[in-house]
Specification:
The chain has helices at residues 5-24, 32-51. By secondary structure, it is an all-alpha fold. The longest helix has 20 residues, at 5-24. It is elongated.
Length: 67
């Protein structure tokens, strides 16, 4: 299954943002610093995930025959 880099980065950004948001609102309030942390988590996840290429699929010819 081939997943585009954009789809991967969107999902990872949502996951990072949700994780940071859940942690930030544990005390019942959202401060400016916590908001900045959420935004930086989303942007960081988008950038890093989009930059890392997918691993190429293994083909039967690339595997050793001695297996």
């Amino acid at each position: 299954m081939k997943i585009s880099g954009i789809a991967k980065s969107i999902v990872s950004g949502l996951a990072a943002g949700a994780t940071a948001a859940v942690t930030a609102v544990q005390d019942g309030a959202l401060s400016t610093g916590e908001g900045v942390t959420i935004v930086l988590a989303v942007l960081g996840a988008w950038g890093i995930t989009y930059a890392v290429p997918n691993r190429p699929a293994a083909t039967p010819r690339s595997l050793p025959r001695d297996l």
